[in-house]
Structures are given as C-alpha cells and as structure tokens.
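Problem: given the chain below (75 residues), write out its structure.
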Amino acid sequence: MNFSQRKLILLTVAGLVTFAFVAALMLQFLPGPRKDSDYLVAGAVATAAALGVVFAAILSDPQAREIFFRGKGKQ
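Solution.
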C-alpha cells in the first residue's frame, strides 16, 4: 500500500469528524438522564460509522483496493 501522507491525514480527519458528529448526534437524541450504557452505545455507533467511512474511502482508491481484493494472478 502506497498512501501518500496527504491521503493518510485526510482519512484520519474524515474518521475523526465522522466520529465526533455521530457521537454528538447520538447524545443529542438519547433521552436523559443518561446511564453509562447510553454513552457506551453512542460511542459504539460512532465508532462503527467512522470505521465505515474510512473503509469506504480506502475502497474508493484503486491502488489501496489491492489490500482487500487481490487479482487472480497475484498470490
């Protein structure tokens, strides 16, 4: 995998922004008073969303796609 430093920074920022946005959104819509498990659920959903964004961004790059899908001739 030959990511440039710019792509790595962009993926990191996209993941962090997605995490923060989804966590804030989840905490906004969860009814109060909140328990520890409510924060656990909000963090888990935000983590899943951030990982989904990063995974989709990696799959959109043709060179990085080789990490997950190898051609028939490669081993």
